[in-house]
Amino acid sequence: MGNRIVGLVINYRDAARTARCVQSLLDNDVSDIFVLDNSADGGKSAVQLGDALAGDRRIQLEVSRENLGFARGVNRGLRRCVECFDPDVILIINNDAVLQPGALSVLSAAALKHHESWVISMDIDHSGRRQGPLFYQRWSGLQFTRPVAGAFPFASGCCLWVDARKMTFPLLDEAFFMYGEDCELGWRLRQQPGSWTHVAESLVRHEGAASSGVGTLFYETHMVAAHLLLARKLAHSGIEAAVFSLARIPVLLARASLRSFRYRSWRPWRALWLGTQLAWRHAV
User: Fold this and answer.
1) From the CB of residue 58, how many other CB atoms can be counted at a distance below 10 Å?
2) Residues near 166 by Cβ (< 8 Å), separated by ≥ 6?
3) 159-163 and 89-94 beta bridge pairing
4) For 3-57, what is each residue's pLDDT tens digit?
5) Is 4 exposed, middle or buried, given 0-12, 13-18 or 19+ CB atoms closer than 10 A?
């Protein structure tokens, strides 16, 4: 294929899924793989990963002493990939995802055809449901699976082909601990016509939120924070940011009500308060 393609996987307390993800990359003849253990669990996950990945010189494992979050973890991993492997392409993939056979051939062909693009995404199989680009409406914060008025497309951060020769650091906005960083990246790429290409083929299987746990306080808090951070990040002015933030209030209140009813818990309301505080700390 000509390109030196390196895989980047962030592990969070799930050695089994990470090992399965890494094996799918090896099966696709990825040159090398950098795995960052982001678990911050006293080395327990690192030991499990070491056992699961031992013996293959193509895999480099590095352990972070703290949980960096997804955006910081990916940015650190990208820098280490460049330092260690001097790649042409870095394939960022979630540890709860599996690359399908032949995926790299399809992506390499897309990169040749769209040579001006330095980020390539693909359709994802979410437990049998095929998902293409998502669409985020700036003024409401609502997300759609098809184009609607006032929304722009962005690629899921589940799996991204990134041209390491054209990439600028940091790739992801580190204000986002997790969730929202892929949407913000899509907004920036939108300002650079031709920089992003989407391949309408299902090349990855993804479990989705396997590590973070949908419905947990952790998940709910960071989802709220992401929506409020995006209100600022996607605005063209301070006035627009204020309008977007105010527009989020009824949406987030409705979201907390629905999820509280669904999970029979007050957790979403607590997360609304904690997530608002988290987003505010980034704003000051």
Assistant:
1) 15
2) 118
3) antiparallel
4) 899 999 999 999 999 999 999 999 999 999 999 999 999 999 989 999 998 878 9
5) middle
Q: Are 139 and 244 in contact (CB under 8 A)?
A: yes
> Could you tell me if 199 and 111 are in contact, meaning their C-beta atoms sit under 8 angstroms apart?
no
Cβ–Cβ < 8 Å for 178, 209: no
pTM for this structure?
0.94
The continuous run of DSSP H or E covering 258 comes out as helix 238-263
Chain segment 117-135, per-residue pLDDT in tens: 999 999 999 988 999 999 9
Name the phi and psi angles at 196, rounded to 5. -125, 135
Type of residue found at 87: P
284: Cβ contacts below 8 Å, ≥ 6 apart: none
Secondary structure of residue 85 in the 3-state scheme = helix
**Residue 221 burial (CB count, 10 A):** 23
The amino acid at 119: V
CA–CA separation, 275 vs 280, rounded Å? 8
Tokens 């995926």, located at residue: 103
171 within 8 A of 93, measured Cβ to Cβ: no
